[in-house]
Amino acid sequence: AEARRARALVRAVWRRPMRPAAAARDRPAPRAGAARGAVDGLTVRCSGSLQVVMRNRGLDDEGVAAWCRGARAHLQGLVASARSPRLTASLVDFAENDIGGTGVRALLGLLLDLGIGVRVLQLHKNRITPDAAQALAHYIAESPRALEELHLSHNLLDREAAAALLEAFAASGTRGQPTYPMRDVRERYRPVWLRLESNPAAAAGLLGGALEGALRRRRLALAFPSPPGARLLCAAPAICGCTAGRCGLQQGPQGPVVHLPFMGAAPRGSDPVCSQSQRLAVPPTHEECT
Questions:
Q1: What Pfam families does this protein's entry cite (predicted)?
Q2: Which residues of the chain have pLDDT under 50?
Q3: Angle (CA) 275 279 280, round 5°
Q4: Residue 109: how many other CB atoms lie within 10 Å
């Protein structure tokens, strides 16, 4: 009798429908789009920020547009799953390619559409022409975060395009609250690092008094702090300790707004001479774009 009861119990156990394991039962369903493939040149850092490195890939405008089409769905998934409402790219590097205005507009349009702010944008050594200035100025004005560095050297920009970029930086922000100069994590003000050298037609007159005066009037119209003695443009003299991360001539939110390094000697009287206390014993060296 005992043996019969044991056999009956075994049969009952084997006939019982199997339940899914707890881990499998409690596992959430895969999110739509979670299995998308990786995007060429795109890295998600452990901090959650993005990094895009497409330097020296032989890209032209169509190549950039194709990359943007392929990256859009993947980036949309990253934006949707991000803990913060906006993503930040620590670096977007499309330098040393063959990109013109169409490619620049495609790239900046993608970043704006997805609300991705960029810390360092490298577009030097391309074929960017003045027709891209409007898209660049629009991105500067609408970007969800302040650009810390914008590298546009060794392109085909002219003075009008360069002036449009400077005006975009000078006028960026809400009334009475300028975006530039930006404040870093230590609550120190510093200008954006803008590389425009080796654009043959862009250098003339950028550091002169006429453009400085026009930018000052623009900021005054927006109720930005801009007293007569403060400079808005700084040639980043190494003797004053100017680097991409600090300005030896900074006067808080009043300016400078933009660093323009490697643009040659500034016109006499267009830049103040730093005081002895501002000079560094060993001036820092600026690294060229590599």
A1: LRR_6 (PF13516)
A2: 13, 18-36, 267-273, 275-290
A3: 170
A4: 15
Strands 177-178 and 182-183, how do they pair? unpaired
Residue 120 structure tokens: 């360092």
Task: Give domain limits for the chain.
Answer: 32-259
Give residue 13's pLDDT: 47
**Confidence at residue 265, expressed as pLDDT on a 0 to 100 scale:** 52
Q: What are phi and psi of 185, to 5 degrees?
A: -65, -20
- Measured over the CA atoms of residue 68, residue 70, residue 71 and residue 75, the dihedral's sign is positive
Q: Are 215 and 233 in contact (CB under 8 A)?
A: yes
CATH number of 32-259: 3.80.10
Beta partners for 117?
A: 88
Bridge partners, 51 (sequence order):
43, 91
CB distance 60 to 92 below 8 Å: no
From CA 188, how far away is CA 250, in angstroms rounded? 9
| CB 240, CB 274: distance < 8 Å | yes
Which token pair is 48? 């959650």
| Three-state secondary-structure class, residue 49 | coil
Collapsed DSSP state (helix, strand, coil) of residue 87: coil
Cα 159 off chain centre by: 23
What is the amino acid identity at position 159? R
Checking 69-74 for CB contacts under 8 A at 24+ apart, the result is: 70/39, 70/40, 71/39, 71/42, 71/110, 72/110, 72/113, 72/114, 73/33, 73/36, 74/36, 74/37, 74/38, 74/39, 74/42
Report the candidate in 164, 162, 149, 138 with the shortest Cα–Cα distance to residue 93: 149
169: helix, coil or strand?
Answer: helix
